[in-house]
Structure formats: structure tokens, C-alpha cells
Amino acid sequence: MRTILVLCLALAGCSESFSAEMEIAAAELKDPSSAQFRHLTRVGNLVCGEINGKNSYGGYVGFEPFYVRDGKATLADKTGDNLIDVTNELRIVNTCADARLSQLNEKMKN
To answer: Residue 37 has what pLDDT?
Structure first.
């Protein structure tokens, strides 16, 4: 967990307030200790961002969207196949994107 937090701080400048959600999301990876995070955002009880991890061959697969809600992580490549699941995922991704844009706009104003 300490490695994950250090990577997050180095890559994204995130705070420790995301540590529980980062641990939950990292547990979904093949190699949880390889987790890298960026663009972490909190919207109410939802934490979203991008996660990267190593595959079976030891190579990083690239950053993918993820979110953690109510103690459960959902990674972009593990979403449901039916229309209701996909629609819900799109709503969540849009919520995360809107929050991230708001954060960036605030940074630009300052």
C-alpha cells in the first residue's frame, strides 16, 4: 500500500484521502503492488481516476478509467455487457469527467 501511495503522490499529486479507494482498486489488478494512479477525483461517495498495472508478462498495460463506490471498484475493462450496466457506467464516467474539468478550470483561474 505504501508503494501505491508514493506512486500516486509522485504522479498525480493526490492526497492520502484516496488511500482506501486506491487499495480497493489496486486489488482488482493482476499485480496490485504495481498500481499507478492519476487524475483522482472525489464526487460525493464516488472516487474515480485512472489506474495502470502490470500484466502477466510484467509490462504495464496503460492507464484505464476506474471508479470506487461503496467500497467496490469497477475497472473500465470489467464493466457489464448489458445495456443497463453500460448506461450506468457512462453516467458515472460523465460525472467523473465533469468533476475533473471543474478541478482543472479552478486551477487555471488561480
So the answer is: 96
Q: CA geometry: angle at 69 spanning 60 and 29, to 5°?
A: 20
Residue 25 CB burial class (10 angstroms; 0-12, 13-18, ≥19)? buried
At 109, the pLDDT band (50, 70, 90 cuts) reads: confident
Q: What are the tens digits of pLDDT across the range 47-99? A: 989 999 999 999 999 998 889 988 999 887 665 555 556 667 777 777 888 88
Number of domains in the chain: 1
Could you write out the three-class secondary structure of the chain? CHHHHHHHHHHHCCCHHHHHHHHHHHCCCCCHHHCEEEEEEEECCEEEEEEECECCCCCECCCEEEEEECCEEEEHHHCCCCHHHHHHHHHHHHHHHHHHHHHHHHHHHC
Quote the CA–CA distance of 13 and 38 in Å, as a whole number.
8
Domain that holds residue 41: 2-109
